[in-house]
Amino acid sequence: MLRESMQAGGKRVDVAGVTQGFDESVDIPHAAALIEFAEAVVARDDARTAKARAALRERLGEAGMVDAAATVGGFHGFVRVADATGIPYTTAARGRDAPEIRSRAGVNEFYRVREDLRGNP
Amino acid sequence: MRSGLATSHDRAWAAIAAPGTWLTGERRVAVAAETRHARNCALCARLKAALSPNVAGEHDTPGRLGPAEVELVHRVVSDPGRLSEAWAQSVLARGLTEEEYIEIVGIIAMVMVMDTFSRALGVAERALPAPQPGAPTRYRPPGAKKQAAWLALVEPADVVPEDGPLYATPTASYIYRALSLVPQSMRDYWALGFEHYLPSELVYRFDQSIRALTRPQTEILAARVSALHQCAY
């Protein structure tokens, strides 16, 4: 979905950054601040989150910060629905996530994919 | 905060408190309480840190739910990226029906969305609602079948009018179909989920966003959160 959203704007992104981290060349405004916010919230580190939230508010305004929080919160639900029900990850993004994209993004190193590749349901 | 978010949270908490399809309001609120409690479970912390997600022990629980429900809630909250079909079947074998399993997952997901949002904003979590009386409807969609996922779901072609509104399009993605074994849980969850992300009609319109973030900004957050959870979907 990240790759598709970038392509819609005539831009490219190296999806390896999803797992390995994005460098400063990623062409998304305030990407580093957004990533820091997401990581702080996932880590449940309230002090780090407060600092990241303030940085986002400064860069994106109150509405942008709130929508970032809404997105991060939303994906704490989506991942649990997907992972608890075992829906086929090969159909993600309506099948746009081709095997080479999953490989490049590092998704093949995730537990479920590794277990599937080993034949363990 | 935009009004749609506040409204969607009010609606979601009210739905959690009400009798569901397979669970009473009391049991649904107990699932919400267990979801919050699981975040501080010592066994879950050991599981999360272990190389293999197979660690013996007892979950720390308030004791309002049975062992199968507790295992389901704690593992989905604490280590969702390392679940497996064999684990899901083991939970069912301990005395939970697949309909109850799906309804519980829907509640966990809603609580995680709302509580994480609160934490991200630095505001207090909302107090749990009082359970509402009444009996579950016990409706299982006749077209539900186990095929594409670990548990049964309703494919768009198998929807019947009694299911109520499920799919706006026959090409609905599997993340959307995942909870369809319990249609009301699916509707409740997505009323919240779409408000947090994007309305369904815009999900694949990559050149548009109605939020205060650009679409790539939304997607870089989504991708990073998913990766940190080891979510392959």
Q: What structural keywords apply?
A:
heterodimer; A: mainly alpha; 64% helix; globular; B: 233 residues; mainly alpha; 2 domains
Major β-sheet annotation of chain B: none
Model regions low in confidence, pLDDT < 50 over at least 5 residues of chain B: none
Mean pLDDT of chain B: 96
Mean pLDDT of chain A: 90
Quickly give the structural class of chain B: mainly alpha
Oligomer: heterodimer
Helicity level of chain A: 55-70%
Helix content of chain B: 40-55%
Strand content of chain A: under 5%
Write the H/E string of chain A, N to C: HHHHHH
Number of H/I helices of chain B: 9
Beta-strand share of residues of chain B? under 5%
Provide the number of structural domains of chain B: 2
Give a description of the structure:
The complex is a heterodimer of chains A (121) and B (233). In chain A, 46% of the residues are buried. Chain A is globular. Chain A is mainly alpha-helical. Chain A has one domain. Chain A contains 6 helices and no strands. The mean pLDDT of chain A is 90. The longest helix of chain B has 24 residues, at 98-121. Chain B contains 9 helices and no strands. Chain B has 2 domains: 3-196, no CATH class; 205-233, no CATH class. The model of chain B has no long low-confidence stretch (mean pLDDT 96). In chain B, 48% of the residues are buried. The radius of gyration of chain B is 18 Å and the shape is globular. Helices cover 49% and strands 0% of the residues of chain B.
Summarize, please:
Chain A contains 6 helices and no strands. Chain A has 121 residues and is mainly alpha-helical. Chain B folds into 2 domains: 3-196, no CATH class; 205-233, no CATH class.
Could you outline the blueprint of secondary structure elements for this entry?
The complex is a heterodimer of chains A (121) and B (233).
Chain A: H1 2-8, H2 17-20, H3 31-42, H4 46-85, H5 99-105, H6 111-118
Helix pairs in contact in A: 3-4
Chain B: H1 3-17, H2 25-38, H3 42-49, H4 67-78, H5 85-93, H6 98-121, H7 174-177, H8 183-196, H9 215-228
Helix pairs in contact in B: 1-6, 1-8, 2-4, 2-6, 4-6, 6-8
